[in-house]
Amino acid sequence: MKPPTKPVKKIGVRALRVSAADVARAAGVSPATVSYVMNGRPGVSTEMRERILRIAQELGHTASSRADRLRSQRTRVIGLVLTDIANPFYTEVAAGTIDAARRQGYEVFLAHTQEDPLTLAGVVDTMIARQVDGVVLTVLHPDDGEVIRSLRSAHLPFVQLSRRIPHLEADFVGIDDTAAASEVMGHVLDHGHTDITVIAGPRNSSASAARAQGFSRTAENRGVELVGIHRINTYLTEDGGHRAVTRILADRPPPRALVCGSDAIAAGAIGALHSRGIRVPDDVTVTGFDGLFPDTSLMGELTTVSQPRREMAELALELLIHRIEGSGRAHRTNIRPHALRIGTTCGCPGRGASAPESHGRP
């Protein structure tokens, strides 16, 4: 790359002919980088953006005033798209995102989709029309490529939280769902259970699919095969868990253990068992996933995986703001630690604390 030349401002008629190439030569960057800055697109660091705008102004590049206007026209609003605000997992993600955004001078445009792809498409179109500065998405399915194309066509940065589209080049914050699920299943197997049914979330959720994979592989590695009636998918709600158990009990006696893909599913499953006089953990042991319920709640004895939901929300917001402000760094995958929290619903005596070791990588 040639060293940058000293800017020489053109005057009069010549100023009208100052091109992006002139600015690029003076700044020692490519014309494409100058174009990104002048059109207010992400992908350029804040420092470089400011330098290019200063040089463009010194040269008298007429488009620099447009770039200044674009920079000043940020709405200071970010979009947050949740799966279901009624699920306590997403409620806490929302609270963490809103608090972190306000500390950075942003407000949050909040929406939820309840797993409906048409609702997701409409929500994203609305956020683009309302000119939010970026979007955090917790709802993506592998077939949501059209939504991603819409965001990228609008030059709108986004971050995936908890769920992701496989092989998509985009920022992501989550946990190692497969490893966490393996730990839960291992604990259930350590109790000696072999009659186990898994109730997982939707198959097209990357997080639910990874958990289901972790449950199944760990069981199979220990000689317990989970096929057919031993694997059920449902919605990530208490109603989903209740319906799944109702379906199980209509066809056969209750299994000795229910391993659930979320705490909301586990809560619904326990409710369905209790309504039929089936005791937990004496008759059926139950585990969850997410760590939603505090020790003081009725569900505080649930054996589950704890994940740092607020921290994840804050990190997603931080990554998004870096993109909004023009960070050109490579997309990041940020896997946060999780912990197995032992309660009594798995058959362990007394309430336990979090496992001494957290898992995952920073």
From TrEMBL:
TM region(s), chain numbering: none
Top-level taxon in the UniProt lineage: Bacteria
Domain HTH lacI-type intervals: 18-72
UniProt entry tagged with the keyword Methyltransferase: no
Keywords: DNA-binding, Transcription, Transcription regulation
UniProt xrefs under InterPro entries: HTH_LacI, Lambda_DNA-bd_dom_sf, Peripla_BP/Lac1_sug-bd_dom, Peripla_BP_I
SMART domains on file: HTH_LACI
Name of the featured protein: LacI family transcriptional regulator
